[in-house]
Sequence to fold (297 residues):
Amino acid sequence: MAASRRDKFTRGWWFILPGLLLMVAIVGTPLFMGFRYSLHDVFLYSFRSQNFVGLENYRRAFADPLYMNSLRITAIFTIGCLVISVGMGILVAFLLNARQVKFRSMWMALFLIPFVMTPVVGGIAWRFFIWQQEVGVLNQVLTFFGGPAPYWLLDRDTALWATIITNSWHLIPLATLVFYAALTTIPDELHEAGRVDGAGPFQALWYIVLPMLRPHILFVSIIIITSAFREFDMIWALTGGGPGRSTTVLSIFAYNRGIANQDMGMANTIAFTMFIIMAVVAWLYITVYRKTLGDKA
Fold:
């Protein structure tokens, strides 16, 4: 009996081995090379002359106030996108799942358009049609009601929040799709019981829907966190990291060090610290996610 189980286990490994080797080659090789370059002085146009410096690049990075500022901005950007995307995703999914909604398929298709649009195109569209100071829709509405017409992307106080809102617009459809699918699995008896007890729509959302969505919220949160933490395209299309360094997240900071300053060793160091931070966050979230599923079971 034990030999039979061992044979099945070995046979299973033979089936997954090709895909496992391919994944290691695709993911592991760039990861190893990035870590290797982070331990050397490597310049963009002279890769052959590499001087081993050990952890010196990491010491320089954490001692650099510009790196710490980019880390702070990245954290604000990630948390902002997480809160807006999850909150709006739950609200939109809840409204779409209501019985009174007509043309549900049409509304769902419209809400998915931002997600299928590339970040660069979305960033350029928001830059010129929404945030633009003279002809942008937002300022047109504000001036119509007698309000000011700020330079949203040129002001240090508003540029970061403009990028957060724009990137959240891109991520909300993903959250909406997952939460809508989860809402369809909630038994109608729970909603009926809530209506009998006098619960309104928002009370049902708070006391019935949100507890049932807890595992899905954790699942969507880790996807949004990993996506927002490494975001480059949309921020670059909106502000290029400016004004000043008010929207210079770690990905843009690494790009500037590697391309503008030609310091590929430091660029790989920054990128590898991003990987370490995300690995720790993902591990914590997966641990909480499994505990949540265990408690639910």
User: Anything to note?
Assistant: The mean pLDDT is 86. The chain has one domain: 58-296. The CA atoms of residues 163 and 211 lie 31 Å apart.
